[in-house]
Design brief:
The protein is of the alpha+beta class and about 130 residues long. The chain contains 5 helices and 3 strands, in the order H-H-H-H-H-E-E-E. Strands 1-2-3 form a 3-stranded antiparallel sheet, covered by helices on one side. It is globular.
Length: about 130
């Protein structure tokens, strides 16, 4: 008799790994935008968890060149009505990807969207 539970667990693990690998294959525009975004978030929010709305609010409340750059970045992914759905989609596409020694992690999903954090990649210097 075959151990179906073990086989199911193995298939689930393989699906998760394939999903992780697929997320790492970003379109060039997404990779460019992620490389611009991660250092700004790291400088302003550090390792704190945030949503797209939290990110927009932190950018608006900040001062200095990095906050201004983050405001401009968020504005490129904001609809005319002020919606952050396009930013949320970028974050979803880039989940698990890294740039400049930093990686974007999705910690949870709520009705308001994903909860993210930026973390350093072990063994890589942060740019």
């Amino acid at each position: 008799m075959t151990d179906h539970a073990g086989l199911v667990d193995e298939v689930r693990a393989l699906r998760e790994e394939v999903g992780h690998l697929m997320r790492r294959l970003l379109a060039p525009d997404d990779r460019r935008d992620l490389a611009a975004l991660l250092p700004l978030v790291w400088a302003i929010l550090g390792t704190r968890a945030w949503t797209a709305a939290d990110l927009a609010a932190a950018a608006a409340a900040g001062a200095g060149a990095r906050a201004d750059a983050l405001v401009a970045f968020v504005a490129t992914y904001t609809t005319e009505a002020g919606g952050l759905r396009m930013l949320g989609r970028l974050l979803t596409r880039c989940e698990g990807a890294s740039a400049g020694g930093l990686r974007l992690h999705r910690l949870d999903v709520t009705s308001d969207g994903g909860i993210y954090a930026v973390r350093p990649v072990p063994g890589f210097p942060v740019a």
